[in-house]
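Table S2 (continued). Query chain:
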Amino acid sequence: MLQVGNICFALDSRITEIPPLLMSTTPSSQRSWFQTEDAWAIVLGLGFVITATLLILTGSSLQWLAIIPAKWSNADLAGQQLLQGAPRYLGLFALWAIALGIGARALGLSLKNFLSSFAVIFVISALIIFMGAWSEADRYNLEPPLVALAVGLLISNTLTLPGWLQEGLRVEYYVKIGIVLLGATLPINLLVSAGPIAIGQAAVVSLVTFGVIFWVARRLGLDSRFAATLGAGGAVCGVSASIAVAGAVGAKKEQGPVAITIVVFWAIVMVFALPLVSRLLALPTGVAGAWIGTSEFADAAGFAAAQTYGGYAGKVSGITGTPDDAVNAFTLMKVIGRDLWVGIWAFVLSFVAVTRWDNTGINHRVGTGEIWRRFPKFVIGFALSSIIIALVSSLYSSTEFNQILKPGLIAPLKNLRVWAFTFCFLSIGLSTRWRDLAAIGRKPFLAFTAGVIINVILGYVLSVIVFGKYWSTLGR
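Corresponding output:
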């Protein structure tokens, strides 16, 4: 069986599992809203933001718990820092375990297995983040996101993992909490001003990418429903779009999983390739973030790529901008520019399927309510976080913002975001087995790959040439 979220399919009569990993939304019509990752991402993410805000307003801070290792240059300094920070790391683990455990229980997971698995994830993540604080880490490209993904892939493809460990590999859960926390560090004025440009650029790339994949798939003899499922997976929102559109157009049960498999493969390839190529071209961090946002196929993988490239700012000769520019540009392009279209694409393609492709007498049409049902609601939490921080910031002068809010409010939330994304990247690696990505078929792979090529080229032209000046000065 091929399992994605709560949906299982058969694929080529093999026992195959694709991780629930790279999704940004999961259709959940059979679950109440408070049994979804979207709900708990909003509850926990906003809970952290509100708690940190109340603490700063009462003269305290979340700094003690939200610890991130300081730079270290030798083993003695590393050991000393780790020993001194041990109580804080234990406190941080307790904070995450309690918060995530409450949500995991509501999601119907085994609390015992989840917490046991999360303890392993936390320890490995801590070691990876600690390694990233090494003074020579930049020289050897030991960026925590890529290291976490690589370590996870190495473990999952060389060892047999115990069943209970799977319970904590909740990629959607971690990435959505990270996105809500990201809202606290993305200025609301930037969201308002850059949103239309991001949506416009994303719309062009998405429409062209979908058209290319659909056309090539039809030329290769694939049916229209399968071609639409592949096209949506490459054009809009990766795994989520594949699931949504496969259901909306009435694709065969094996076609959705095949599309998901290809999305997973290319998302992982791009998480390593895009930062590397951007570095060779010495792109400004905002420009690279926008290119990654138009050319990645999944939120989690894209955040890893954007965060990795942002880490080069000020450390690699020729790369200008700030680390936040890369993440902010990616967020605007992917989360705002592309993810929001999932419901609309599912609705439009369901209408096309019924009016143009349906010769079976089965009505696969969905109502306009489908647009809201497919809407990635964790984005609401993202926006609310940004609004809360904007309101609090309005109470302080620019000097007070830099002296009080940045270190006491923004920095702790950013640190928690780093932890959440590291949990996510490690879980992606631990959930992915290359042998499970083999049974996808040549024709759908070729069709999707054609879209990948166009997607990357067009994304580069728009991000670097057409809007390069805008993205390179993002927020300034």
